[in-house]
Amino acid sequence: MSDMKNLLAPIGNVPEGKSSGKLAEQRAEYVEMAAEEKALIVETELDKADAEVATDLEQVSAEIENLASSEGASFDLQQVINVWFERAEQKFAAGEVTRRAAVELNIDSAATYGTIPDKIVQMFINSAETKATGMAKLEVAKALDQATGVAGSISKDDNVKAAEIEEKATEILANWGKNASAIDFLFKRLFNKVLNRVLDYQTRLSMIGQDLAKKSVMLDRVSASLRARRDMVKKDLLQTCINGLALEAIIDDTRAELKSLEKELSNAKGADRGPLNELVKDQQAFLQILIKRLIDLKSFAVKEIGLYSIIGTIHASVAVIRADVEFTRTNLIAALGLQLGLVVDIVSALRIAKASQDVRRAEADASASVGVAADALQAAANSALLDVQTTMRSLEATIAAASRGIKNTRDNMDKVEVMQRETEVRLGQLVADLGNA
């Protein structure tokens, strides 16, 4: 996986300054570009994670098959300890191998040698933990669905569409001279309608942003759970290696004992051969059980190494998703809320532009009537009207980018859940295959 710092870093810089048409357009371009870039990063990282998980599973399967055919000789447990664990753990393992190798096993006690304690099994398959992490992701997805719904509502609402508002406001202002007081009432009603719609959407976006901030903490818990499970796997890997190495020593002693019995049997004559023959057969059966258990332990060590890597990959995928959620709840929602506020500015700017045009005409008429040339107000308010045009173009782009970004986040969360489910199924099949070996 790529460096998490890069994933969590903001994309580009949000344009700052006073709300003008040009800046609104810059913000729209930023949001659209950043949303697309963020979606691409997330999609790339999750595709890479999916491929890594598939590769790890294939390697685990291949290594287990190799172990079965070589009676475990192809896999060095001591090398695993040397590579995976610190010096203190290596020293602990050496002492434990010596202690456990001295344990007297028989054909019955060999059946339970090296098996995971029931308590550890329950920790591995903690259904309550699985349910909690799954529910956390569903809660985040629910909040994202709400954000998608609000963004969708904004995009379909003519009362906050810049083009629609411009058309209505221009039509009202064009009829100003017919009945100024009545038209002023209509214009104020348009302004209030737009203002109320904008405030409603901004409030809803704010609540969703706050909700996502709380839900993001749930994703932290999912990450913590994955980290804990990964640590648990590594700790048990050490125990598996120790048990396997001790068993190798026990197998060497058992082989030596078998050779001694076979030699004794070859030298025995008459009635003495019967009891010795039974002892040899029992020793052979005992040795076969020990070798089978050694293959099981080495296979489980391979599985745990693969599982450690797979959990790490999925943990990194959750971090990618959390970065995506954080980007959605901050950059996208903030930009969309800001652009909504500019819709109100659109209506005000049109009214200002109309008033300043009227003043300019009236002043020109008055100047002409008294025979004085006046250019004092010639440039007044033109910029406001021009800014409105660019702001209108920016609004639709921002809404579209926000809506796509939110939907991408939801789709990516679905992808991680599918990846986890498929991984669990394939790992479960590996466990079943190992049990049937």
From TrEMBL:
Per UniProt, the keywords (alphabetical) are:
Coiled coil
Coiled-coil blocks:
244-271
Q: What is this protein's record name?
A: Toxic anion resistance protein
Q: Which organism is it from?
A: Candidatus Collierbacteria bacterium GW2011_GWC2_43_12
> What is this organism's lineage?
Bacteria, Candidatus Collieribacteriota
